[in-house]
Amino acid sequence: GQQLNQSPQSMFIQEGEDVSMNCTSSSIFNTWLWYKQDPGEGPVLLIALYKAGELTSNGRLTAQFGITRKDSFLNISASIPSDVGIYFCAGQLRGAQKLVFGQGTRLTINP
Amino acid sequence: SQTIHQWPATLVQPVGSPLSLECTVEGTSNPNLYWYRQAAGRGLQLLFYSVGIGQISSEVPQNLSASRPQDRQFILSSKKLLLSDSGFYLCAWSKLARNEQYFGPGTRLTVT
């Protein structure tokens, strides 16, 4: 089946640093979504992207829908302790009812 | 506003016992519904999805089944649990013609 390559798999940063992660695919997607999952909870939708080149912000988070429609990026500025968790990208192929998920980026922040 | 509920929150079951996990959505009608499984520290594996009452699509051949007896109710079942069925089970919903999925709080299943 379709796969999304999400990187990095894990990140260890200092509080206050900026964070960047991305997802790539060999297929073209119509939608890119970014989720955050805290331990023991369900993923929470952070940002949804629907157009190639689209750049959307949600507070300190910014995500972009790649021009080629095969990738997406998530940036977190000035990280704080509550940003700790696992971040997942997800994409939807045209006409599909389901999402394809990346394997996640685990973010750890040292105070 | 819409909310999604799952129960139970945690479950410990012996191998060979039956399973029934329930998911309900409030505040919307005709949602698409999804069941995912997540192994510890891993990504999300889609198990089943449904676009309407009685309509179930299976993604992975396995020991599990799903049913949708009502518009906003989605049930995950097994007749005989295996050790490999342990994991974190997540239900999600989306609006028809929209791609954003919203997840429930999950059920932690441990098969012993």
Give your account of this protein's structure.
The complex is a heterodimer of chains A (111) and B (112). With 111 residues, chain A is mainly β. In chain A, 0% of the residues lie in helices and 52% in strands. In chain A, the strands form 2 sheets. In chain A, strands 2, 4, 5, 9, 10 and 11 form a 6-stranded mixed beta sheet that branches. Chain A is globular. The mean pLDDT of chain A is 94. By secondary structure, chain B is mainly beta. Chain B contains no helices and 11 strands. In chain B, the strands form 2 sheets. In chain B, strands 2, 4, 5, 6, 9, 10 and 11 form a 7-stranded mixed beta sheet that branches. The N and C termini of chain B lie far apart (38 Å). The mean pLDDT of chain B is 94. Classes of the chains: A mainly beta (111), B mainly beta (112).
Low-confidence stretches of chain B: none
Which overall shape of chain B is indicated by the principal axes computed on the Cα atoms?
globular
Number of strands of chain B: 11
Biggest pleated-sheet summary of chain A? 6 strands, mixed
Number of strands of chain A: 11
Gyration radius of chain A, in Å:
13 Å
End-to-end gap of chain B: 38 Å
Task: Give me the secondary-structure category of chain B.
Answer: mainly beta
Average pLDDT metric of chain A:
94
Spell out the helices and strands of chain B N to C. EEEEEEEEEEE
Specify the overall morphology of chain A.
globular
Number of helical stretches of at least 4 residues of chain A:
0
Largest interface: A-B, 23 and 22 residues
Q: Which bin fits the share of residues in helices of chain B?
A: under 10%
The span between the termini of chain A is: 40 Å
Radius of gyration of chain B: 13 Å
Oligomer: heterodimer
How would you summarize this macromolecular structure in one to three sentences?
The complex is a heterodimer of chains A (111) and B (112). By secondary structure, chain A is mainly β. Chain A is built from no helices and eleven strands.
